[in-house]
């Protein structure tokens, strides 16, 4: 697929999962997007994994001397991206071939500022969306039908945006554990006027058998809670609305979450 006079940066964050990274790269290259580059940002993986990924066909491979966490890793990659548009993808995701057929449409919507970011997937479907095209919808800023999902407008699952998005809405809060950093940024985006879109069809999927590094960030993350899922869902929603109410865009940070990197 050729996109005239537009350059795309595929940004992939990586940490100790070279096999997943290879699958992710293969899926991206099969999209055949012209005027593009692949930027892989590694967060101090083990030497044996670095030796492996240095043999992969990557335009820019950014390395770190010490592990700084996902937020710092994304920020470093954003700075290095040369494209006007960034397609972000963690190494444990595969982008679907159908992205090739709608990418021009995504970029047009971003250029026209009808959306500021377009997600390619969501773990849970939003009950209410505002159609923009036959393939892309806008997530309402607030909807009672999306009461349990309003705060999930942003996710670090694969998406496309303009590089200027981060000048307008800020980059990621560094020195944070993965779950804390993602939640903080999600609250930040919900508090802003950023317009987040999503494809009507899931166009990204996790690699089967891949284990998220978030699972091992804390002992608490592995606990089995006695409450049923319904009550957990309700409690989580009110907790995040409280975070939204208390959130300070200048001081940043969360009140009821623990940052395991501090």
Automatic annotation (TrEMBL):
Q: Which organism is it from?
A: Flavobacterium algoritolerans
List the CDD domains hit by this protein, alphabetically.
Glyco_tranf_GTA_type
**UniProt xrefs under Pfam families:** Glycos_transf_2
Q: Which InterPro entries match?
A: Glyco_trans_2-like (IPR001173), Nucleotide-diphossugar_trans (IPR029044)
Query: Do the record's keywords include Thylakoid?
Result: no
Q: Which UniProt keywords apply?
A: Glycosyltransferase, Transferase
Enzyme Commission designation = 2.4.-.-
What residue stretches are annotated with the Glycosyltransferase 2-like domain?
Answer: 9-112
Specify the taxonomic lineage. Answer: Bacteria, Pseudomonadati, Bacteroidota, Flavobacteriia, Flavobacteriales
Question: What is the name attached to this protein's record?
Answer: Glycosyltransferase family 2 protein
Top EC category:
transferase
Q: Where is the signal peptide?
A: none
Gene3D superfamilies per UniProt:
Spore Coat Polysaccharide Biosynthesis Protein SpsA, Chain A
Give any GO molecular function from the UniProt entry.
Answer: glycosyltransferase activity
């Amino acid at each position: 697929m050729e996109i005239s006079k537009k350059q795309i940066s595929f940004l992939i964050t990586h940490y100790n999962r070279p096999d997943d990274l290879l699958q992710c790269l293969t899926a991206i290259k099969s999209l055949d997007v012209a005027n593009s580059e692949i930027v892989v940002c590694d967060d101090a993986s083990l030497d044996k994994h670095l030796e492996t990924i240095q043999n992969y066909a990557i335009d820019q491979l950014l390395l770190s001397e010490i592990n700084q966490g996902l937020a710092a890793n994304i920020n470093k990659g954003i700075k290095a991206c040369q494209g006007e548009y960034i397609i972000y993808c963690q190494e444990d995701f595969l982008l679907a071939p159908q992205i090739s057929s709608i990418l021009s449409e995504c970029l047009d919507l971003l250029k026209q500022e009808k959306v500021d970011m377009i997600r390619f997937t969501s773990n849970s479907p939003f009950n209410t969306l505002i159609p923009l095209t036959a393939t892309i919808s806008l997530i309402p800023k607030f909807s009672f039908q999306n009461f349990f999902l309003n705060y999930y407008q942003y996710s670090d699952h694969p998406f496309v945006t303009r590089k200027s998005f981060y000048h307008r809405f800020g980059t990621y809060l560094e020195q944070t554990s993965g779950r804390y950093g993602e939640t903080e940024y999600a609250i930040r985006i919900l508090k802003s006027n950023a317009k987040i879109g999503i494809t009507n069809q899931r166009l990204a999927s996790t690699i089967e058998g891949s284990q998220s590094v978030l699972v091992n960030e804390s002992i608490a993350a592995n606990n089995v809670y006695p409450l049923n899922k319904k009550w957990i869902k309700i409690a989580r929603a009110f907790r995040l609305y409280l975070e939204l109410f208390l959130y300070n865009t200048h001081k940043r940070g969360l009140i009821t979450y623990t940052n395991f990197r501090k």
